[in-house]
Amino acid sequence: MGFKGISDLITSRREEYLEQLFTLLRQKSISAQNIGIEECALLVKELMKEAGIKNTSLMETDGYPVVYGEMIQDPEALTLLIYGHYDVQPPDPVEEWLTPPFEPTIRDGKIFCRGVGDNKGQLLAQVLAIKTYLDHYGSLPINIKFLFEGEEENGSKNLASFIEKNKDMLKADLVYTSDGPMHDSGAPYVLLGVRGMLYIEMTTKGANWDNHAGNKGNIVPNPAWRLVNLLNTMYDKHGHILIEGFYDHIRQPSEREKRIMKNLPFDLNQVAEGIGYKDLDMDGETYYNKLTMKPTFNIAGFTSGYSGKGMKTIIPSEATVKMDMRVVVDQDPKDIYEKVCSHVQKYAPDVEVKYLGDMIPSRTSTENKLVEVVTKAVHDSYNQEPVLQPSLGGSLPDYVWTKILGLPSVIVPYANFDEANHSPNENMNVENFFNGIHCTCHVINYLGNYTKKSSNTLIS
Question: One Pfam annotation, family name (predicted)?
Answer without folding.
Answer: Peptidase_M20
